[in-house]
Protein backbone atom coordinates (compact mmCIF):
# COMPACT_ATOMS: atom_id res chain seq x y z
CA UNK A 1 0.00 0.00 0.00
CA UNK A 2 1.38 3.43 -0.87
CA UNK A 3 2.21 6.00 1.80
CA UNK A 4 -0.36 8.47 0.46
CA UNK A 5 -3.13 5.84 0.60
CA UNK A 6 -2.10 4.97 4.16
CA UNK A 7 -2.16 8.67 5.07
CA UNK A 8 -5.66 9.07 3.64
CA UNK A 9 -6.92 5.96 5.46
CA UNK A 10 -5.40 7.21 8.71
CA UNK A 11 -6.94 10.65 8.23
CA UNK A 12 -10.36 9.14 7.57
CA UNK A 13 -10.10 6.90 10.62
CA UNK A 14 -9.08 9.79 12.85
CA UNK A 15 -11.80 12.11 11.53
CA UNK A 16 -9.37 14.61 9.98
CA UNK A 17 -10.84 14.05 6.51
CA UNK A 18 -14.58 13.55 6.19
CA UNK A 19 -17.09 12.73 3.54
CA UNK A 20 -20.25 14.77 3.93
CA UNK A 21 -19.44 16.58 7.19
CA UNK A 22 -19.72 13.77 9.75
CA UNK A 23 -20.62 14.77 13.28
CA UNK A 24 -17.94 14.23 15.86
CA UNK A 25 -18.85 15.82 19.17
CA UNK A 26 -21.37 16.57 21.86
CA UNK A 27 -21.41 20.09 20.41
CA UNK A 28 -23.46 18.73 17.50
CA UNK A 29 -26.08 17.28 19.86
CA UNK A 30 -26.20 20.61 21.68
CA UNK A 31 -26.61 22.45 18.36
CA UNK A 32 -29.57 20.21 17.44
CA UNK A 33 -31.17 20.80 20.84
CA UNK A 34 -30.74 24.57 20.45
CA UNK A 35 -32.25 24.45 16.96
CA UNK A 36 -35.25 22.53 18.33
CA UNK A 37 -35.76 24.99 21.17
CA UNK A 38 -35.52 27.93 18.77
CA UNK A 39 -38.06 26.28 16.48
CA UNK A 40 -40.38 25.76 19.47
CA UNK A 41 -40.07 29.48 20.26
CA UNK A 42 -40.90 30.32 16.63
CA UNK A 43 -44.00 28.11 16.87
CA UNK A 44 -45.14 30.05 19.94
CA UNK A 45 -44.61 33.34 18.05
CA UNK A 46 -46.37 31.96 14.95
CA UNK A 47 -43.29 32.85 12.89
CA UNK A 48 -43.81 30.48 9.96
CA UNK A 49 -40.67 31.64 8.13
CA UNK A 50 -38.47 30.77 11.10
CA UNK A 51 -40.36 27.53 11.80
CA UNK A 52 -39.69 26.41 8.22
CA UNK A 53 -36.04 27.51 8.33
CA UNK A 54 -35.24 24.39 10.39
CA UNK A 55 -36.47 21.98 7.68
CA UNK A 56 -34.61 20.66 4.67
CA UNK A 57 -36.40 21.22 1.36
CA UNK A 58 -37.09 17.47 1.16
CA UNK A 59 -38.48 17.15 4.71
CA UNK A 60 -41.13 14.50 5.36
CA UNK A 61 -43.51 14.20 8.27
CA UNK A 62 -45.90 11.63 9.63
CA UNK A 63 -48.28 13.62 11.82
CA UNK A 64 -49.44 12.41 15.21
CA UNK A 65 -52.60 10.82 13.87
CA UNK A 66 -50.91 9.24 10.85
CA UNK A 67 -51.35 11.79 8.06
CA UNK A 68 -48.22 12.24 5.96
CA UNK A 69 -46.75 15.30 4.29
CA UNK A 70 -43.74 15.52 1.97
CA UNK A 71 -41.74 18.65 1.24
CA UNK A 72 -41.12 21.96 2.94
CA UNK A 73 -43.99 23.72 1.14
CA UNK A 74 -46.53 21.13 2.29
CA UNK A 75 -45.29 21.14 5.88
CA UNK A 76 -45.28 24.93 5.91
CA UNK A 77 -48.89 24.95 4.71
CA UNK A 78 -49.93 23.07 7.85
CA UNK A 79 -48.66 25.93 9.99
CA UNK A 80 -50.04 28.63 7.70
CA UNK A 81 -53.55 27.25 7.37
CA UNK A 82 -54.61 24.74 9.97
CA UNK A 83 -52.61 25.29 13.09
CA UNK A 84 -52.21 29.05 13.35
CA UNK A 85 -55.45 30.57 12.09
CA UNK A 86 -58.21 28.40 13.54
CA UNK A 87 -59.95 29.72 16.68
CA UNK A 88 -59.18 26.36 18.31
CA UNK A 89 -55.58 26.31 17.08
CA UNK A 90 -53.13 23.97 18.71
CA UNK A 91 -49.62 25.18 19.59
CA UNK A 92 -47.18 22.30 19.33
CA UNK A 93 -44.04 21.91 21.39
CA UNK A 94 -41.37 19.24 21.01
CA UNK A 95 -39.38 18.33 24.12
CA UNK A 96 -36.21 16.38 23.30
CA UNK A 97 -35.34 13.52 25.64
CA UNK A 98 -32.43 12.11 23.64
CA UNK A 99 -30.22 13.40 20.83
CA UNK A 100 -27.47 11.36 19.20
CA UNK A 101 -25.19 12.28 16.32
CA UNK A 102 -23.21 10.06 13.99
CA UNK A 103 -19.43 10.13 13.93
CA UNK A 104 -19.55 8.71 10.39
CA UNK A 105 -22.22 10.77 8.62
CA UNK A 106 -23.75 14.23 8.96
CA UNK A 107 -26.81 12.79 10.71
CA UNK A 108 -28.52 13.21 14.04
CA UNK A 109 -31.38 11.35 15.73
CA UNK A 110 -33.70 13.03 18.20
CA UNK A 111 -36.47 11.48 20.27
CA UNK A 112 -38.80 13.08 22.74
CA UNK A 113 -42.33 13.94 23.71
CA UNK A 114 -44.61 16.42 21.99
CA UNK A 115 -47.58 18.30 23.33
CA UNK A 116 -50.34 20.22 21.61
CA UNK A 117 -51.66 23.09 23.74
CA UNK A 118 -54.98 24.75 23.00
CA UNK A 119 -54.54 28.35 21.73
CA UNK A 120 -51.19 29.06 23.46
CA UNK A 121 -48.22 27.27 24.97
CA UNK A 122 -49.86 27.95 28.36
CA UNK A 123 -53.20 26.47 27.31
CA UNK A 124 -54.37 23.00 28.28
CA UNK A 125 -52.71 20.03 26.61
CA UNK A 126 -55.28 18.51 24.24
CA UNK A 127 -53.07 16.02 22.39
CA UNK A 128 -49.64 14.55 23.08
CA UNK A 129 -47.34 11.67 22.35
CA UNK A 130 -43.84 10.66 21.30
CA UNK A 131 -41.75 11.71 18.32
CA UNK A 132 -38.50 11.03 16.53
CA UNK A 133 -36.63 13.22 14.09
CA UNK A 134 -33.76 12.74 11.66
CA UNK A 135 -31.46 15.74 11.36
CA UNK A 136 -28.95 16.34 8.59
CA UNK A 137 -26.07 18.81 8.61
CA UNK A 138 -25.90 20.83 5.42
CA UNK A 139 -23.50 23.73 4.89
CA UNK A 140 -22.62 23.63 8.58
CA UNK A 141 -26.24 23.89 9.75
CA UNK A 142 -28.48 21.20 11.26
CA UNK A 143 -31.85 20.77 9.51
CA UNK A 144 -34.77 18.40 10.10
CA UNK A 145 -35.10 15.90 7.23
CA UNK A 146 -37.89 13.79 8.69
CA UNK A 147 -40.19 13.63 11.69
CA UNK A 148 -42.55 10.95 12.95
CA UNK A 149 -45.10 11.87 15.60
CA UNK A 150 -47.37 9.36 17.33
CA UNK A 151 -50.37 10.62 19.31
CA UNK A 152 -50.82 8.64 22.50
CA UNK A 153 -53.25 10.78 24.51
CA UNK A 154 -56.02 13.24 23.77
CA UNK A 155 -58.34 15.41 25.82
CA UNK A 156 -61.13 17.85 24.98
CA UNK A 157 -60.90 18.96 21.35
CA UNK A 158 -57.85 16.70 20.92
CA UNK A 159 -60.03 13.61 21.35
CA UNK A 160 -62.24 14.78 18.49
CA UNK A 161 -59.41 14.79 15.95
CA UNK A 162 -59.56 11.95 13.42
CA UNK A 163 -56.74 9.50 12.74
CA UNK A 164 -55.61 8.58 9.26
CA UNK A 165 -57.28 5.41 7.95
- Number of spatially distinct domains: 1
Largest sheet: 6 strands, mixed
Sequence of strands across the biggest β-sheet:
2-1-6-5-4-3
Strand content: 35-45%
Overall geometry comes to: globular
CA-CA gap between termini: 58 Å
CATH topology assignment: Nuclear Transport Factor 2, Chain: A
Mean pLDDT: 85
Radius of gyration: 19 Å
Structural class: alpha+beta
CATH architecture: Roll
Uncertain segments are 1-21
Helix content: 25-40%
How many β-strand stretches?
6
Count of DSSP H/I helices: 5
H/E order of the elements?
HHHEEHEEEEH
Just give the CATH class. Alpha Beta
Care to describe what's here?
The protein is an alpha+beta fold and 165 residues long. The protein has a single domain (19-160), classed as Nuclear Transport Factor 2, Chain: A (Roll). It contains five helices and six strands, in the order αααββαββββα. It has helices spanning 3-14, 26-45, 48-52, 72-85, 157-160; strands at residues 55-62, 68-70, 90-101, 107-118, 125-138, 141-154. It has a six-stranded mixed β-sheet with strand order 2-1-6-5-4-3. The longest helix is centred in the first third of the chain and has 20 residues, at 26-45. The protein is globular.
Descriptive keywords:
6-stranded mixed sheet; Nuclear Transport Factor 2, Chain: A; alpha+beta; 33% helix
